[in-house]
Amino acid sequence: MDLLRFITAGSVDDGKSTLIGRLLYDTDSIKVDQLETIQKQSKNKSEGEIDLALFTDGLRAEREQGITIDVAYKYFNTEKRKFIIADAPGHIQYTRNMVTGASNSDLIIILVDARLGVIEQTRRHTILASLLQLPHVVVTINKMDMVDFSQEVYDSIVAEYSKMAESLKIKDVKFIPISALNGDNIVNPSANMPWFKGETLLHLLENVNVAQDINYDESRFPVQYVIRPQSDDLHDYRGYAGKVLSGTYKKGDRVTVLPDGIESVVEAVEVHGLEVEEAFAPQSAVIRLKDDIDINRGDLIVKQSDIIKISQDVQATICWMDNRPLVKGNKYLLQVQSKRVRCVIKEINYKIDVNTLERHEDFDQVGLNDVVNVTIKTASPIAYDSYNTLRANGGAILIDETAHTTVAGCMLQ
């Protein structure tokens, strides 16, 4: 059974938490004791109604204010697929939370209030989705029950959003009119909108093809752990464990270990402790090489014919996540997959307006939630891909070595 990671985003009170609660409730993914607790806390319990948003609004501050602050992760599965949901905050001051949740997602659900249409937060989250190269966008026009299930309202929002998506070059966009509160077009088709001939939200989530998003042309295997049992029966065993980010690996493949550029040949590939003909993304595997090479955690094994960047000067678009401002000359750790290197912010090139994608070169400082383009100087060369061409190996984070906290999410260029 495969896995789909998706995130919900939208403006405040668009119904993100209610939508997720509806999905969990209608797919029988809520435990009895949790359901009983929510029933007691629901504001409308006297009328027999359940406040579905409480299933995801886990923080006390969220429940008191009726908003989402943190990224709430929920898990459920159907007969066809497993799901991990990230419920992202709608407030502008929590942009970093939305970026964090979206960076690991295959799909984003953007909610639009049918009464308000496409607003500033809708545009902001769509622009962030385009920057993060999310392959699938689902626009759910929510609260259709409050506009009398009007097809005219739905068509107008679809037309306006489609123009924006086209300008941002978002390829896969789907639209669904829903009522998260009442369950219209969530799990079952809505009798209130017979004019809509598309699929329900759950059907779309169960059937969206995420396998086609994996790059099988370039092979990337970051080493996470070197296995050396040094036992009597496995005296010469040396295996390199990790996850195949993209491409495939099989016995006989000629590979290069980066960043040192040492060449070798794959002697064997193991998955779940057994030798296999081939390992492919996104499998976890162990690769054994014919040559005895000094390979460490963070090194990257690629096919010899693959083209990849190796440099100490790295340009990146970053989302700043720290309360302290970003300053040229600051020193951090840059982590790309399992490799960590010390680095310094060499230049702050420009700031990106997340509402318009305009670039601004005149700014005072870089603060919390700002998106900027920087040049990073690393202490030693790193091997990486452009985020726009190979998302799996183009993402990174900046870490404050002293505080042991992540201060920025990076899209390498």
TrEMBL record:
GO BP terms: sulfur compound metabolic process
Record's keyword terms, sorted: ATP-binding, GTP-binding, Nucleotide-binding, Nucleotidyltransferase, Transferase
Tr-type G domain boundaries: 1-213
Pfam (any one): GTP-eEF1A_C
Keyword ATP-binding: yes
EC category name: transferase
Coiled-coil intervals: none
An MF annotation (GO) of this entry: GTPase activity
EC numbers, comma separated: 2.7.7.4
PANTHER family: TRANSLATION FACTOR
Protein name as it appears in the record: sulfate adenylyltransferase
Organism expressing this protein natively: Arcticibacter pallidicorallinus
